[in-house]
Amino acid sequence: MAPERAKSSGTPRTRTEKVHHALRNAIIEQRLAPGSRLPEDAIGDSFGTSRTIAREALGRLAVEGLVDLIPNRGAFVANPSLEDGRGIFTVRRALERAMVLELAGKIDAATASRLRDMVGREAALAARNDAEAIRLAGEFHLTLAQLTGNALLLRYVTETVSRCSLVLAMYGRPHSADCGAREHSAIVEALISGKLDEAAALMDQHLAEVASRALLNSRVEKDIREVLSAYAREIDTA
Amino acid sequence: MAPERAKSSGTPRTRTEKVHHALRNAIIEQRLAPGSRLPEDAIGDSFGTSRTIAREALGRLAVEGLVDLIPNRGAFVANPSLEDGRGIFTVRRALERAMVLELAGKIDAATASRLRDMVGREAALAARNDAEAIRLAGEFHLTLAQLTGNALLLRYVTETVSRCSLVLAMYGRPHSADCGAREHSAIVEALISGKLDEAAALMDQHLAEVASRALLNSRVEKDIREVLSAYAREIDTA
DNA sequence: GCGTTCACTATAGCATACAATCCACTAATT
DNA sequence: AATTAGTGGATTGTATGCTATAGTGAACGC
Description:
Order of helices and strands of chain A: HHHEEHHHHHHH
Oligomer: homodimer
Number of domains of chain A: 2
Shape of chain A: globular
Mean pLDDT of chain A: 85
CATH superfamily of the largest domain in chain A: GntR ligand-binding domain-like
CATH architecture of the largest domain in chain A: Up-down Bundle
Strand order of the largest sheet of chain A: 1-2
Strand content of chain A: under 5%
Largest interface: A-B, 49 and 51 residues
């Protein structure tokens, strides 16, 4: 009667979950431009599955707010307005501020070195690959959320981080990727030395600055199959 | 190429959406007990659709965190632990604090009287009908969220309010309903007179008290595993 | 008597087939 | 020429059937 308490596995086990994650990454990494159509067949073809899987993944992405679903018309990569973007950042700042404060007493030595390590990798990649840098910068925030042990907080931070990536893709300046490493490092050090209020302030400031980089910018659209073929390989090997 | 800007329609148009909404309501209203199995066949039969629809709805509810999906095992109504409950309240406090601060300059005369009116109705009902009072207390928070004009914030506040209701239903004391009216009134007055920081502090305190009243004193353990986990550790070491 | 193994059954995972809907294009009428 | 009605093609919405997997109970060995 009672369900298992072990859940929210890190690795996707079903095809649906794999496609769901792959599509989310594709959107977050800005490989799929906001507003792009996402036909079920094309997605199914790309990942070597049926439309059923693609359709289910799209439905879940719609709940996450990364995809707009229009009945009988299809799915589109979410296309938030500038005002929506500001609202998303507002929510994210509130969440991540709470997140930092929740980390009280949850940073042990092992965790500390793990965080330092992660920030180090970020700094190394900052000037290089865009997609990888974006992913890593997001993962930093996700890791902190995970450390709180608060499942709902993790869920919401995950969603807002994703949506912020999308907003930055639409309105941010081209090379806004290298922003994070130093600021992340400062936050980590504040956390490790137990200065939570300072860490919270730094985080708030960090996100405020990221948000302030919202300016007009447009992107070019590519063929969906071409973009997704790379992601399809990901799930084959899994 | 660009998608419609009209989205998130109020009324569900596809069968999947209808089942999705229906199931969500059923869970939030506790018609489906936490931990209950949700077999695809049974859901399909209940709504007169195929398993496909039920399956899709369950997947979306899983993203929302209202359902746990275990591969090859099935779907279960989420069964938040007491700790989860605390986490939910933490998130809610962060969100509603931000919400109050976002209301700067958005309370005109008409809105002010509308809020006073609403709180007045709450006060009148406080000692009477429980279900109605609970509904009104929730609506107060939802109304404020709506006034911010922030779509994501509204969605998250709506979700957390729902979940808090669920948590209170599981772990809260019977007569924890009569808490709100006076505190709500104080918040409204602070808002109207433009003292946002004071309003935010009041809101934070208000929610903290609701949480502590319900959760801290609760000794009810609905989940056997929770009780036994402490004993299980002893056995492991032996 | 207890534990282990193995077959069985129920249910989820997935693909395919069919039906419904919308859009674009055409053509005819005013 | 513009507008509207109609038709074809493409894409989504839904149901059903097959396959794979995990729990369940019986038979067997210890």
